[in-house]
Specification:
Blueprint: H1 15-23, H2 27-36, H3 42-45, H4 47-57, H5 62-70, H6 73-88, E1 94-101, E2 103-107, E3 110-117, E4 120-127, E5 134-139, H7 140-147, E6 157-165, E7 168-176, E8 180-188, E9 193-200, E10 207-210, E11 214-223, E12 229-237, E13 242-243, E14 249-251, E15 263-268, E16 271-276, E17 289-291, E18 293-298, E19 308-309, E20 316-319, E21 325-336, E22 343-351, E23 360-367, E24 387-389, E25 397-399, E26 403-404, E27 410-412, H8 416-419, E28 427-433, E29 438-444, E30 456-462, H9 474-479, E31 483-484, E32 508-512, H10 519-528, E33 536-541, E34 545-551, E35 559-565, E36 576-577, E37 584-586, H11 598-609, H12 627-642, E38 659-663, H13 665-669, E39 672-674
Parallel strand pairs: 36-39
Antiparallel strand pairs: 1-35, 1-39, 2-3, 3-4, 4-5, 5-38, 6-7, 7-8, 8-9, 10-11, 11-12, 12-13, 12-14, 15-16, 16-18, 17-20, 18-19, 21-22, 22-23, 23-27, 24-25, 26-31, 28-29, 29-30, 30-32, 32-37, 33-34, 34-35
Helix pairs in contact: 4-6, 5-6
């Protein structure tokens, strides 16, 4: 007792009790606890200690899957915590121009981009998550000659990547000799294998999804009994290299055609999932309620008898009394929860709640649940005692109880004062990352720049639980997933989706790069806003990175592909040190500026001033200094791509193979920065 009298009580806790405390904390809290005291470094350094933490809290992350093979659970824990914090606080670990291309697709952690230098064309595949310095190159003319020999002499054709997953790349090839033909090419470039070529009757809204065993493609092309186009799906067995014997799956009840906005399709495990935020009888529903149409079927048995549909008790979406919303800002996706492995419907809606003049974006999560006997959708109807509300000259409208969503399933993003500053045409990427309760945008912040030049910035906002706040357990949610309020016409002081006992703190918002001026920030902005490649932005991303193509928008213009990563393990060869540039905290609302106390302001200033390369000063304008070297580098790369003969480095197959490995283009460009922490 005497020997330990000078040691703080927490440090005297035995190993087992520390492990118990850690089980009650989030990954981020565990990481921050270890940073508070050198004594607790073992919490994030000991693989044996970290293994149960990682396997219990984040078993469905890429880092956890890698740790199962390598045994480096401590590295996985640190990487997850750093990645989440970097994304939440808009503080990326690296940025760079990774390629120049004519088109691109980012899926499954792989960047697939096409370079056209007719008659030569190449598809190049870069493993972004793996930070590789080699790219898998597909010689498109050679691939076509082998896949569809009679099209080899055709010089005018279209070739684009539809999807990539599990090493399988699906492409759409269109050409015309006597008539236009559209073909689906399923290839495995790593082994120079053409798995299947299939002539398509239609390419309307075509999409592809696959895992390592099955592949499905769908088109919005079949006419239903109501005269409207419907989705039709067809499956392929990758293990036997044959189409499934079942006929095509006709989705007569699936409404919506805009993938990513009104419909979404994914393969998780042994099931094919689909969801739509539209329903056939939504307009005719007397209760004015909106429901998701969510279904699944086994990937090996795409039969009507195996189709499962979410019931109305689990698929409620919104009440029309909650107000109108702006479709332009919406998105819809299906994803796996990193902790539980559950399938989640994620939707963003920008709404005018209860007729208010201001709108705000809100992110809604709905757990996908399939109960027994849910093949038929049952909608609740008005009861005899349902109240009605009407105004002068209005016909009676039903007033039904409105469901109040659980707090963990609803995240109010922009306040109306901030949302009014966001212009949809200048917001090039919007996403919500559930694992860290963060919304992220890539915006063109030209309104603050007198020159009017393009100025891309990242904006994030995240929320945390209030101290001492607790959320319902999983068992409680399963027993009663919805709460009810008496009427949709509540007091205007209390939003429908935020009760007075809201357990979350207000959003904390960040912008990157910050407003301060320095030489290091000029280098960052030269990569964000590539001179000569400005005006047209096409962006995508996930929980690890944001990737966008930027060009001047002219016909046939080459795009510069810019990569921003929040993964601390991303380290491409040839990166140079860019300093310690962190995201800058900004008020959550315009009127919060006065509420931001002096301590927070001082803390924000200290974070920015602590880095020697971030200087406090006037707002920075995009500088043209030293951009000539950057531009010439890109021009050299573009020229070398246009004049390139078939590369000689072929390790993916035989000498005559259409797939081979080559040095990654980002090594030729050499425009990459990494940031320290």
């Amino acid at each position: 007792m005497t020997a330990s009298s000078g040691i703080p009580g927490l440090q005297r806790l035995p190993y087992e009790l520390v492990s118990y405390v850690v089980q009650q904390l989030d990954i981020e809290d565990v990481f921050n606890w270890a940073l508070c005291c050198k004594h607790f470094q073992y919490i994030i350094r000991d693989d044996q200690f970290c293994k149960p933490v990682v396997t219990a809290k984040v078993p469905h992350t890429l880092e956890a899957q890698e740790a199962l093979t390598t045994g480096r659970y401590s590295r996985a824990l640190r990487r997850i915590a750093k990645r989440r914090e970097a994304l939440s606080k808009a503080s990326p670990y690296a940025i760079g121009i990774v390629a120049c291309a004519d088109s691109y697709v980012y899926a499954g952690g792989k960047l697939c981009y096409i370079i056209e230098a007719r008659p030569k064309r190449w598809l190049r595949i870069l493993d972004i998550h793996g930070s590789t310095d080699q790219e898998l190159v597909v010689d498109i003319p050679k691939l076509i000659s082998e896949a569809i020999p009679r099209a080899a002499s055709c010089r005018k054709y279209r070739f684009r990547v539809l999807h990539q997953s599990a090493g399988i790349v699906s492409c759409l090839f269109s050409f015309a000799i006597d008539e236009t033909e559209n073909w689906l090419l399923i290839i495995k470039p790593e082994k120079s294998q053409i798995l299947e070529t299939f002539r398509l009757a239609s390419t309307a809204r075509i999409f592809v999804r696959n895992n390592d065993k099955f592949l499905y493609f769908g088109t919005h092309s079949e006419e239903g009994v109501d005269g409207l186009k419907k989705w039709v799906l067809k499956g392929y067995d990758l293990t036997s290299n044959s189409w499934l014997p079942q006929p095509r799956v006709f989705m007569g009840s699936l409404v919506g055609f805009d993938i990513g906005m009104t419909v979404c399709f994914e393969i998780f495990g042994d099931y094919f999932y689909g969801v739509s935020n539209k329903t056939l009888n939504e307009v005719d529903d007397p209760e004015w309620q909106s429901y998701y149409y969510c279904f699944r079927f086994p990937v090996n048995e795409p039969e009507g008898s195996k189709l499962e549909v979410m019931g109305s008790e689990d698929s409620w979406r919104r009440a029309h009394s909650e107000g109108p919303y702006d479709d332009r800002w919406g998105f819809l996706s299906l994803e796996i929860d990193e902790t539980t492995g559950d399938i989640i419907i994620l939707e963003c809606r920008k709404e005018w709640s209860k007729g208010q003049s201001g709108s705000q974006r809100t992110y809604y999560s709905t757990e996908v649940t399939f109960r027994e006997n849910t093949t038929q959708r049952v909608y609740p109807r008005l009861g005899a005692g349902t109240a009605t509300r009407r105004g002068i000259g209005d016909r009676a409208q039903p007033v039904t109880p409105v469901r109040r969503r659980m707090d963990q399933y609803t995240h109010v993003g922009d306040a109306s004062s901030n949302a009014s500053l966001l212009v949809r045409s200048k917001t090039h990427f919007c996403a919500y990352i559930r694992c860290c309760h963060t919304f992220i945008d890539l915006i063109d912040d030209t309104v603050m720049d007198a020159s009017g030049a393009q100025r891309l910035r990242l904006q994030t906002g995240y929320r945390r639980l209030k101290p001492g706040a607790k959320l319902p357990s999983r068992e409680q949610l399963l027993e009663s997933p919805w709460a009810f309020v008496e009427s949709p016409y509540q007091s205007s002081d209390q939003p429908l989706d935020q009760p007075l006992d809201h357990p979350y703190q207000p959003n904390t918002r960040y912008m990157w790069p910050p407003e301060q001026g320095s030489r290091e920030l000029d280098r960052v902005r030269q990569l964000l806003d590539v001179e000569g490649y400005q005006g047209c932005i096409i962006a995508t991303g996930d929980e690890r990175a944001v990737i966008y193509a930027t060009s001047d928008g002219s016909k046939g213009s080459v795009q510069a592909l810019v990569f921003i990563t929040f993964d601390p393990a991303a380290r491409f060869e040839g990166m140079t040190y860019g300093g310690d540039i962190l995201g800058q905290q900004i008020p959550s609302d315009l009127h919060d500026d006065a509420d931001l106390d002096a301590d927070k302001q001082a803390k924000s200033s200290e974070v920015l001033q602590s880095s020697p390369n971030v200087e406090m000063g006037a707002a920075v304008r995009c500088s043209g200094a030293d951009t000539s070297s950057d531009q010439s580098s890109l021009d050299v790369t573009r020229a070398s791509s246009a004049n390139r003969s078939i590369p000689s480095h072929r390790s993916a197959g035989s000498v005559e193979s259409w797939a081979y490995y080559e040095t990654a283009m980002h090594l030729e460009i050499q425009q990459k920065l990494y940031f320290s922490r």
